[in-house]
Amino acid sequence: MKCVTCRGPAVIDIRRQNANYCVDHFFEQCRRQVTKAIDEWKMIEPSDRVLVAVSGGKDSLAIWDLLIELGYQADGFYVGLGIGEYSEVSHSHAAAFAESRGLTLLTVDIPTSYGYDIPTGSRAARRAPCSACGLSKRHLFDAAALEGGYDVLVTGHNLDDEAAVLFGNTLHWHTEYLGRQLPVLPARDGFPKKVKPLVRLTERETAAYCLLKGIDYLVDECPMAVGNRHLSYKEALNDIEVKSPGAKHSFYFGFLDRASKHFAPEADEDREGLEPCLTCGAPTPSGTCAFCRLVDRAGGHQPEPVPVELGAIRTRTTS
Ligand code: FES
Ligand code: ZN
Ligand code: ZN
């Protein structure tokens, strides 16, 4: 197996491109794909202050590393979910990465700041764990980006994630979600700009990037995600990809090119008429936002105001 660029020994084959790469040209390929996504969708300006949502897994550490390599100024943001040892280990991976590169990792620990954890929250709210988790993380990511004055919030969603979400939303015709499934969501009242610069790379590639770069990431899946439909959609798409290399790519990018605009009006409707949450001020259709209701049902509390540099709910763990 030879590298398509230099004819040296290749370490990875990428079947959808019908190409093999050596270590250096694979890194170059990853940087090129991220740059292409950023340029094509106007995700990040060179002077932007970037906040990366970091879980300690391969995708978030890979994109943080790639953004730094590409010269962006990017801090990390970690949310402690209170999922036992899984949360402890994931935080240690995120913190070790930040420390090894002298980067800033901001942290909110949900049990410490809000008095609940994801297992309790999901039971109390009668939501699937991943739903309570996603709701909590989205709320805290948005708050951290806005309160910290960041220009853009980066998440580590890769091509497999986006294709699986698209597959699920299409199977069930969740048209309002289809209208919102874009690699960039612009800033608007109460929401930061959100971007997904990894959409041109698969999770196999982000894992290979971390391994070859010596980035120690958390390999284990979240224990609460067992039975999650998103994982079964990923498996189904992986089976299709084996027989038809490039299927995920053409499914997702074909949707963006040809279909997503047809669903935009429904997503826009969903975003209209929001007002500030009575408890926390985040945008919500009316009354108290879903996050504050979850905190309440789980027997938690709003955080005590602590006068730290970036607002009441954050602690700086690395600088
Ligand atoms: Fe969110 Fe597992 S990481 S439920
Ligand atoms: Zn090469
Ligand atoms: Zn609220």
From TrEMBL:
Pfam families: ATP_bind_3, TtuA_LIM_N. Residues 2-26 form the 2-thiouridine synthetase TtuA-like N-terminal LIM domain. It comes from freshwater metagenome. GO terms for biological process: tRNA wobble position uridine thiolation. The keyword Phosphoprotein does not apply. Keywords: Transferase. This is Unannotated protein. One of its GO terms (molecular function) is tRNA binding. Residues 50-221 form the tRNA(Ile)-lysidine/2-thiocytidine synthase N-terminal domain. One of its GO terms (cellular component) is cytosolic tRNA wobble base thiouridylase complex. SUPFAM superfamilies: Adenine nucleotide alpha hydrolases-like. Coiled coil: none annotated.
